[in-house]
TrEMBL record:
<protein>
    <recommendedName>
        <fullName>Glucose-6-phosphate isomerase</fullName>
        <ecNumber>5.3.1.9</ecNumber>
    </recommendedName>
</protein>
<dbReference type="InterPro" id="IPR046348">
    <property type="entry name" value="SIS_dom_sf"/>
</dbReference>
<dbReference type="GO" id="GO:0097367">
    <property type="term" value="F:carbohydrate derivative binding"/>
</dbReference>
<keyword id="KW-0324">Glycolysis</keyword>
<dbReference type="GO" id="GO:0006094">
    <property type="term" value="P:gluconeogenesis"/>
</dbReference>
<feature type="active site">
    <location>
        <position position="279"/>
    </location>
</feature>
<dbReference type="InterPro" id="IPR035476">
    <property type="entry name" value="SIS_PGI_1"/>
</dbReference>
<keyword id="KW-0963">Cytoplasm</keyword>
<feature type="active site" description="Proton donor">
    <location>
        <position position="252"/>
    </location>
</feature>
<keyword id="KW-0413">Isomerase</keyword>
<dbReference type="Pfam" id="PF00342">
    <property type="entry name" value="PGI"/>
</dbReference>
<keyword id="KW-0312">Gluconeogenesis</keyword>
<dbReference type="GO" id="GO:0004347">
    <property type="term" value="F:glucose-6-phosphate isomerase activity"/>
</dbReference>
<dbReference type="InterPro" id="IPR035482">
    <property type="entry name" value="SIS_PGI_2"/>
</dbReference>
<feature type="active site">
    <location>
        <position position="395"/>
    </location>
</feature>
<dbReference type="GO" id="GO:0005829">
    <property type="term" value="C:cytosol"/>
</dbReference>
<comment type="function">
    <text>Catalyzes the reversible isomerization of glucose-6-phosphate to fructose-6-phosphate.</text>
</comment>
Length: 415
């Protein structure tokens, strides 16, 4: 991947501080080590799933599902996969019913993923599906060692896999959380990790991405009060779910109280897909408040050569300029034109990421690139990148509401 910055940030002292902090974090934060992991245990587990299983279902939410979904939906259009993969992530009853209508329970294996082992959304869905298909062999549980979920899985003699130490949910896609469902579907997880490793080596071993990532992170941190909205403008429908993963990663990691002050800080993530969002959100970027930076993502090779037919339409002869043009060239011309228009505005920070082609190695690189960038920006704006107290507060309130609801039902029944 190639990252081109169209803004400058040359504070070497701050860049070096950020780099040293991230080097030190490797001793305590687990996601940094994931690119080098041995995938033999994952491959061995996958061999235990019978060939007659045609569908894999992930029951999980947030970091338990978004990363794997981003990779699956990126690779699926260009690769013949051995199994379909579905994600149950919502307590929306219509969504649950619709997804269930697409699968055959008898030929489906379910991966129930919860780091804590007590996620409300995950287990409300699991309880419903288990009531329809109560065969423990149809389920594998992925959780932290010693969690309530592990104890439950042991009690029904179901398969259990563990998350690695010190890997938070939104940074877990390159762990068992993402690798297992992806490998079961036939995605090349070794190539995925290779792509992540390329970015890691470039950053930590004086490659070109070190300078680029540090300049970008310092610019975002230095200007986060003004340019506090970060737009990811991806020119491929296959990156739609990558944008969703980025929104969770960026928002949950960077929206915090500062560690050494009482200030609230953060950078708001926006995921956009070109060219369709040229006809909506682009207007706000172009002429709205100057509070947004924009990163464009382009794919050089879409692995699809369809072209616009050489046809002249009556009264639409001016559109003959499209004739014979490959769609992959058109979409990148659209991206380049929007970038040029924004550069002409002079006061909108933009950069571009160019992905050579649609495959596992390139999405692995993009995933790890954004994890590193998130860690760097978190360090520079002085937040704990790896906790989420704001999310936990809502969970505590929900737990109290559920307990109150049970008490009301008990009082009603006893009366």
């Amino acid at each position: 991947m190639i990252n081109r910055l169209y803004f400058t940030s040359n504070n070497k002292q701050i860049q070096q501080h950020a780099f040293e902090a991230i080097k030190e974090e490797q001793n305590t934060i687990g996601y940094y080590a994931l690119p080098e992991q041995d995938i033999t245990p994952v491959s061995a587990y996958c061999q235990t799933i019978p060939e007659e299983i045609r569908t894999i279902v992930v029951i999980g939410i947030g970091g338990s599902s978004l990363g794997a979904k981003a990779i699956y939906e990126f690779v699926r259009p260009v690769k013949k996969l051995k199994r379909k993969l579905y994600f149950f992530e919502s307590t929306d009853p219509i969504n649950i019913t619709t997804l269930l209508s697409k699968i055959d329970l008898k030929t489906t294996h379910f991966l129930v993923i919860s780091k804590s082992g007590t996620t409300v959304e995950t287990f409300s869905i699991y309880k419903y599906i288990y009531s329809l298909h109560n065969d423990p062999k149809a389920y594998t549980f992925i959780t932290d060692p010693g969690s309530p979920l592990e104890q439950y899985a042991q009690s029904i003699q179901a398969s259990i896999l563990h998350l690695p130490n010190n890997v938070g949910g939104r940074f877990s896609v390159l762990s068992t959380v993402g690798l297992v469902p992806l490998a079961l579907c036939g995605i090349d997880i070794q190539a995925l990790l290779k792509g992540a490793q390329v970015v890691k080596e470039s950053f930590f071993n004086e490659g070109y991405l070190k300078d680029t990532l540090l300049k970008k992170a310092v610019y975002y941190a230095k200007n986060h009060a003004q340019y506090h909205i970060n737009c990811l403008f991806a020119y491929s429908e296959s990156l739609k779910y990558f944008c969703e993963w980025y929104v969770q990663l960026w928002g949950e990691s960077l929206g915090k109280h500062q560690r050494h002050s009482a200030f609230h800080v953060g950078l708001t993530p926006i995921g956009l897909i070109g060219p369709k969002d040229q006809h909506s959100f682009l207007q706000l970027i172009m002429e709205g408040t100057r509070d947004k930076s924009v990163t464009f993502i382009k794919i050089e090779d879409f692995n699809d050569r369809i072209t616009i037919p050489d046809i002249t339409l009556p009264h639409l002869e001016s559109l003959d300029v499209l004739n014979g043009l490959p769609f992959e060239k058109l979409i990148n011309m659209q991206c380049d034109s929007v970038m040029e228009a924004l550069l002409n505005e002079k006061d909108i920070p933009i950069d571009s990421i160019i992905i050579p082609k649609t495959d596992e190695e390139n999405i692995g690189s993009l995933i790890f690139y954004y994890e590193l960038l998130t860690s760097l920006v978190g360090e520079l704006i002085d937040v704990n990148t790896y906790d989420q107290p704001g999310v936990e507060a809502g969970k505590i309130i929900l737990k109290k509401k559920l307990e109150d609801n049970i008490q009301k039902l008990e009082q009603k029944n006893s009366g």
